């Protein structure tokens, strides 16, 4: 993750903590996180705010190993070693990147049903940064 200033971090809490997305009124695509321009059709038209379910399936994933993690994750790497990061296609169509948790990295599979959970991501500038991580959805989608 790139450095995010404390003011910017606090300003974007509602979208991140509640998983609020936006539906483009021009093309109907769902964007997350919300942006000023639709990332699918580049329209800067009006958007409809929508609550995302947080449920989806793994579109693709990668295993982050030693030397591949950003500095803010160094403590996590020392404590637990490699960890999977996935791009998840949510039920609403938006694709979201997030760390996988509560799963053995060897058990992560394409199209695996997952759900988002708000968890501690890292600590920066003395502030605990929370965000969504994905965990296997044992009930399926």
Overall SS class: mainly beta
Q: What is the H-and-E element order? A: HHEEEEHEEEE
Q: Which word captures the global form?
A: globular
Low-confidence blocks of residues? none
Relative helix content: 10-25%
Describe this structure in words.
The longest helix has 7 residues, at 74-80. This protein is mainly beta and 141 residues long. The chain has one domain (6-134). The relative contact order is 0.19. The strands form 2 sheets. The chain has a 5-stranded antiparallel beta sheet with strand order 6-5-4-7-8. Strands 2-1-3 form a 3-stranded antiparallel beta sheet. It has helices at 6-11, 13-18, 74-80; strands spanning 20-24, 30-31, 47-51, 55-64, 83-90, 95-99, 113-124, 127-136.
What descriptors fit this protein?
141 residues, mainly beta, 3 helices
Brief synopsis:
It is built from three helices and eight strands, in the order H-H-E-E-E-E-H-E-E-E-E. It has helices at residues 6-11, 13-18, 74-80; strands at residues 20-24, 30-31, 47-51, 55-64, 83-90, 95-99, 113-124, 127-136. 13% of the residues lie in helices and 40% in strands.
Helix-strand layout with pairing:
Layout: H1 6-11, H2 13-18, E1 20-24, E2 30-31, E3 47-51, E4 55-64, H3 74-80, E5 83-90, E6 95-99, E7 113-124, E8 127-136
Antiparallel strand pairs: 1-2, 1-3, 4-5, 4-7, 5-6, 7-8
């Amino acid at each position: 993750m790139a450095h995010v200033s404390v003011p910017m971090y606090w300003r974007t809490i509602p979208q991140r903590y509640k998983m609020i997305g936006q539906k483009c009124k021009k093309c109907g695509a769902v964007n997350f996180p919300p942006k000023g321009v639709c990332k699918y059709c580049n329209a800067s038209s009006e958007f409809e705010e929508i609550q995302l379910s947080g449920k989806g399936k793994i579109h693709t994933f990668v295993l982050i190993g030693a030397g591949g993690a950003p500095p803010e994750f160094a403590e996590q790497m020392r404590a637990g070693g490699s960890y999977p990061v996935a791009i998840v296609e949510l039920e609403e169509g938006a694709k979201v990147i997030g760390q996988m948790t509560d799963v053995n990295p060897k058990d992560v599979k394409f199209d695996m049903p997952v759900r988002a959970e708000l968890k501690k991501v890292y600590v920066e500038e003395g502030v605990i940064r929370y965000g969504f991580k994905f965990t296997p959805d044992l009930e399926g989608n």
